[in-house]
Amino acid sequence: MLDQADLRGLSSALLGRADELRVLARHAEAARARRAGLVHLSGPAGIGKTSLLRAFLKSDACRNMAVLYGSCRQVVGGAGYGGVRELFGSLGLSGEDARNSPLLRGLARRALPALTSGPADEGTPGGPGVYPVLHGLYWLVANLMADRPLVLVLDDVQWCDERSLCWVDFLLRRAEGLPLLVVLAQRGEAEPVAPAALADIVAQRGPTLLRLAPLSTRDVAEMARRVFPGPVEPGFVERAATVSGGNPFTLSRLLTELRAEGVQPDERGARRLAEVGGQVVSLSVGALLDRQPPWVREVARAIAVLGEESPELIATLADVPPSLVADAVLVLRRAELMAPDRPDLVHDMVRCAVLGPDGGEATAELRTRAALLLSDAGRAAEDVAGQLMLLPAVSQPWMPGVLREAAAQAESRGAPEAAVRYLYRVLEVEPHSVPVRVQMATSLAEINPAEALRLLEEALDRVGDIRTRATVAVRYGMTCLAVQQSPAGARVLEEVLAALEAGLGPEPDPADRELHTLVESVLLIIGTDEKATVSAARDRAARLPEPPGDTPAQRQMLAMMSVLNAMEGCSAGRTAEQARRALRFPGTGLESWSLISSSFALSLADEVGEALDALDGLLQHSQATAAVWTYVLGLSARTFILHSAGAIPDALADAQTAIEIIGEERWGDGAVMPQAALATVLVDRGEPRRAEELLLGIKRPDLDRFVLQYHWYLMARARARRALGDREAALALFLECGDSLEKSRFTNPSFLPWWAEAVRLLVKMNRADEAREIAEYGTELAGRWGTSRALGLAALSRGMITPGGAGVELLTESVRLLAESPARSMHAEAEYLLGRALLKTGDQRGARERLRAATDLAQRCGALALAGASRKLLVTAGGRMRKMSASPLDMLTGMERRVAGLAATGESNRSIAESLFVTVRTIETHLTSVYRKLGVSRRTELGAVLHTPDIPDGQPPGWVVESRWRR
């Protein structure tokens, strides 16, 4: 606990704030101990927030800590990452040589668009987008904390932009174990620029709240004694406290003004206090400027509008010779109207007093001149727009162009909220503009898709040209997909497609054909999302001729055709060929939908190696661009493919990585695919209860509307219930999955083979007739699809319901077929079931051979539950096999395996964290756990342990190994 002695070094001029200083000092001490903290400081204007912060930062509490202080200004309050630039401005990272700074090494270079006020450099890694910049700023802070703890102080945060606040939230979500203290100071009565973002930080991050109270009567008396040399009467103190409201800035101006008048702190002085009242700031500022030459007032007004600017610009706006600016600044500093340490007015209360007497029109005219002046000086459009945003109206013809350019700059640096704010002002003078609405919707698509949808609906209502309407409809459809309103998007696209076909004629030019194909492909994408639209999408795809795949839209069309053909389950060969053609130009920047869709179709066609190649390309691109949601989607998709191929440890690593990432993201609660993927793997790892808990935590509303997510969820729930011994509930879920898939016209036997699972369960429940009916249904589907996996599952199902030697023959056939497929874990299960059947017929020798194969294969796949069951039955059959001991590697989680593997190849903790979108602290925690479980003490020992021949490592076939090492 800190006492008065612990406050040495704190400003002695600061009155009544000892308790607040102690709180801040305790948080600084905690940050040194790697306990990150957030303090939210608030109070009205003049209450002393800035003075308190400056005293804290100069105190011993912050000694040997890196300190960054920034104060948000109203004139740049709406600019994208304006708060960030104020905060990091002292580091000098906005110049042309900033790329060479060691602070911007690695992924920290992605922060560059946020650090400069001009247009973003097209060569900046990651390009435009919200997440790359946030990610880069996080690593910039990590670099700052490499040597010492860090204090980040953002003052006047009520004028901070959304992106800067979102970055603060992004940082705090990853702050556990970091030597970090964040302090946000807010003027309570001012309307924030980004109220939702600020409120969310305060509500979600659990800050220490410090609301500065008015000075006590005792503190008012002390301040009066510092101003007046003689004794101060109690009546004067009480009146001063009442008139000033205990506001330190108001009180200081009030007492200083009275002393300048020669007033004494007695009864007469108390009467004068009442006469001056709470308007002392405006009155004293006005009186002082009235006593000065007119050019002093003009310079003060120019500074009030421009803020911290060069004397030349101040002189031009004030319309005075440059030589007079320095003289005016000297006068204003002596009067304590300007800050002693920066070329700006001392307080916003003074700024209001300087501008107030001239009225709104005069100030608007001055700001308009300031905007033109900044533009002529070659300043960035966002700097010019800062002045225009404070005008009551966008009244001159040149203003919308500046605001559009500012919006483009904001978008290029990954600050969509600022871009939209500028464009809303443009809409004031161009209320029917379609391009402005489309540009706004594009900016909002990632951060606020619901508002983007509304703007696109307005654009569709106003657009006349059919080509423009088609382009807008494509954006509308993809935005509907993001907000889970695919049927609405499908209706609009169908209408637009019909109009497009009527308007383009029988022989459209190449550009029109590409546009038509793009609209059709997007219609297929969103039509496949929900049950309500998937049937129409299937019918539409069946009527379309296959495009050659020479253009991006054609390849996207081929990718979606391959998915819809795979859903129908009629020709694996045709499906695979369509998917390959969609992927045949990998260097042309395929859309993520083409890669994901093609990989999905290829995996169902048993072309698992090619499917993983496609996903590897997607993951590498999303890592390079910090496209985190695409990365999570790719990991989840790869989890399902690896699981189906029997590479369960690799599947577990992918799934756990995805789960760790979404745990640190705002949108994580709405995800389904990562949770379903991890739950699917956990059941085979012998953790069904954990799998079910994960599934029950999914918060997506109306999940049963969706074609893929719902069935992944149902299948994982059913398998978890079966593993927990609840056969009736498991069977009901399997059957619900099958019924729902059939209603969705999704009849591929290899996608979530519920029918094979249901047959096995019904056999155990002695319901042979029902099992036979479902087995016949699955066999028919498998015959149409024709892959080794599907045919092997069909033979397996028939073998389970067929008694005697005929059943053994079918099970033997299933083992042969599944051995030819990539489905190694299903092959292991077939070996197990064949061994059990042979044991029932009395063929113990044959049973032991099959059960030994099942045990070995299951263990190598990482299917620990099946391996345990196989070994137990092998012992019953009289066989011997080395007891399954929990290998050290089996004790590692999937994420620990991944981290250990990367560390063994020589990757640093930093590079591992960057590649997996997690913090260095997270990697350190995982490695500590790995060392403990494997019994090693340093990373150089990992390679030997991870590649010990006697340890079953779950190695998949060669194509999986190659894919793994390409990551």
Tell me the β content: under 5%
Order of strands, main sheet, comes to 2-3-4-1-5
Radius of gyration over alpha carbons?
Answer: 34 Å
pLDDT average, as an integer?
87
- Describe the global form: elongated
- Total strand count, please? 5
Helical proportion?
55-70%
In the predicted model, the low-confidence regions spanning at least 5 consecutive residues are: 1-12, 122-128, 948-967
Number of helices: 48
Largest sheet: 5 strands, parallel
> What class, by secondary structure content?
mainly alpha
Termini separation (Å)?
50 Å
Concise summary:
The protein has 967 residues and is mostly helical. The protein is 64% helix and 3% strand. It contains 48 helices and 5 strands.
